[in-house]
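User: Reviewer 2 asked us to show a designed sequence for the structure in our supplementary figure. I'm pasting the structure tokens here. Could you produce the per-position amino acids so we can include them in the response letter?
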């Protein structure tokens, strides 16, 4: 009975939202002649940006099928060139090798493999959010772009995209992070240009998943007066700041002899042979998960506070763990309000990994999973931590958390009902007078 009433409540809410959405859509269509909309900048999730590569002389190919003699010196699509890999599977080891990152000790930073240059495709636009790979179809923001176009947004006029090389990550302020610094300056210029083109209206930043980490750190590092004059609102969908226990399973599933990972994140990490800097940013933060045991074995438990020991147990080197400590951990410990109006939208009601039991301590086995609430990737604890640490900061001007029932991490940007909620919140952010 209670469940049924709850269900009815959800239906009523959805109907109400649908009504709001359609009236919002009409209003926007009606006003299209006058530029009422604030420009929107979309920052997509993990694996949703494309990048090209080109090889130069010093590149040492892993097999004779690749390298300068075979692949040439011209730019080609490295991520993601699904069609090419279907047609020419012998290129897979080449792409895997070229996708890797290495750590440059002299520069104190991650970089491409020597002899490989990369560049993000179509920065400023949303064109690169569309993939020919069926696995990526509903994971990226292509359907959100359509939904925004449905309410009067127009690519290149008031709708823009900020793709980034997701192998790299935002890092603590005191370490070198060239890729992230490059993203920050490109995004700054994009936001200034978008605002200029739209009668100096400040922009609305809309992120999905890992895009939220990029945008949050971008905002925190931008001067406060700049933020206040250029950013009207930050709409964060399924933000993963604070990490997720699911990542511990993903990391274990990519250990040497493990069976092939079943998650998209796992396959991407395996593809890069666990060399991507960004993987450490997804590990659960002590600020959110404290000392709750997240991984349980007969002999020892691991909480977010024991992450270095867990990483050792699943095969990371001391050097890699030191980089987790100096680059990623300080960010996940230092949750901060962005000090611009913010709306967080999260899915709930989907079983979400909260704990993992590897009773015999064998991390290459499939664990017994203990589920909590969330969107299947991001837990409700993460949502509550955002409310507490960002919403609860007296300096934060406006903060709202919207929970969308029965919505998965990717469903947030692909289910019609969730998209209505998202677009409606973006329209509301447009109207807010603060
Ligand atoms: C994929 O790679 C091939 C070979 O390098 C290239 O010809 C093709 O244009 C690439 N696809 C895209 C979408 O760039
Ligand atoms: C993957 O990384 C491990 C550890 O860094 C290394 O020993 C191994 O050779 C790498 N494999 C490939 C195919 O690059
Ligand atoms: C691990 O955590 C579980 C659940 O909280 C607890 O019952 C168990 O005693 C802990 N085991 C060890 C070895 O600390
Ligand atoms: C761990 O589990 C894997 C997969 O079930 C198995 O192949 C391997 O032998 C196990 N290792 C140990 C040390 O028991
Ligand atoms: C949740 O969503 C699934 C798939 O869209 C649907 O089959 C199911 O009935 C929904 N459950 C509730 C409680 O709304």
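Assistant: Here is a per-position design you can include in the supplement:
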């Amino acid at each position: 009975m209670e469940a049924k009433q709850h269900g009815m409540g959800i239906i009523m809410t959805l109907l109400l939202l649908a009504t709001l959405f359609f009236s919002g859509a009409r209003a926007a269509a009606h006003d299209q002649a006058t530029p009422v909309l604030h420009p929107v900048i979309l920052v997509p999730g993990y694996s949703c940006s494309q990048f090209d590569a080109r090889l130069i002389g010093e590149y040492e190919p892993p097999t004779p099928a690749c390298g300068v003699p075979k692949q040439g010196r011209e730019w080609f699509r490295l991520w993601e060139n699904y069609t090419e890999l279907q047609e020419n599977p012998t290129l897979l080891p080449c792409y895997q090798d070229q996708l890797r990152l290495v750590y440059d000790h002299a520069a104190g930073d991650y970089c491409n493999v020597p002899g490989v240059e990369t560049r993000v495709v179509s920065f400023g636009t949303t064109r690169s959010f569309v993939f020919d790979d069926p696995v990526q179809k509903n994971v990226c923001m292509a359907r959100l772009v359509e939904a925004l176009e449905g309410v009067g947004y127009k690519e290149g006029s008031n709708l823009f995209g900020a793709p980034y090389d997701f192998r790299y990550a935002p890092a603590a302020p005191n370490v070198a992070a060239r890729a992230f610094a490059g993203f920050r300056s490109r995004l700054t210029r994009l936001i200034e240009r978008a605002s200029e083109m739209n009668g100096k209206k400040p922009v609305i930043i809309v992120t999905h998943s890992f895009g939220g980490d990029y945008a949050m750190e971008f905002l925190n590092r931008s001067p406060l007066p700049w933020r206040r004059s250029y950013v009207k609102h930050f709409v964060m969908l399924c933000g993963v700041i604070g990490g997720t226990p699911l990542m511990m399973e993903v990391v274990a599933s990519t250990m040497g002899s493990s069976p092939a990972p079943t998650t998209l994140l796992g396959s991407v990490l395996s593809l890069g042979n666990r060399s991507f800097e960004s993987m450490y940013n997804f590990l659960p933060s002590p600020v959110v998960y404290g000392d709750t045991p997240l991984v349980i074995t007969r002999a020892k438990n691991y909480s977010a506070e024991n992450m270095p020991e867990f990483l050792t147990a699943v095969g990371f080197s001391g050097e890699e763990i030191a980089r987790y400590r100096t680059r990623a951990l300080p960010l996940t410990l230092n949750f901060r309000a962005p000090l611009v109006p913010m709306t967080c939208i999260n899915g709930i009601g989907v079983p979400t990994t909260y704990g993992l039991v590897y009773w015999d301590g064998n991390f290459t086995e499939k664990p017994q999973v203990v589920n909590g609430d969330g969107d299947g990737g991001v837990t409700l604890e993460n949502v509550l931590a955002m409310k507490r640490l960002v919403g609860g900061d007296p300096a934060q001007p406006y903060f709202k958390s919207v929970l969308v029932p029965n919505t998965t991490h990717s469903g947030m940007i692909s289910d019609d009902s969730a998209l209505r909620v998202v677009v409606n919140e973006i329209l509301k952010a447009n109207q807010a007078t603060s």
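For the response letter, you might also mention the following. Residues 1-34 have pLDDT under 50 and may be disordered. Residues 293, 296, 300-301 surround 2-acetamido-2-deoxy-beta-D-glucopyranose (ligand 3) (CB under 6 Å).
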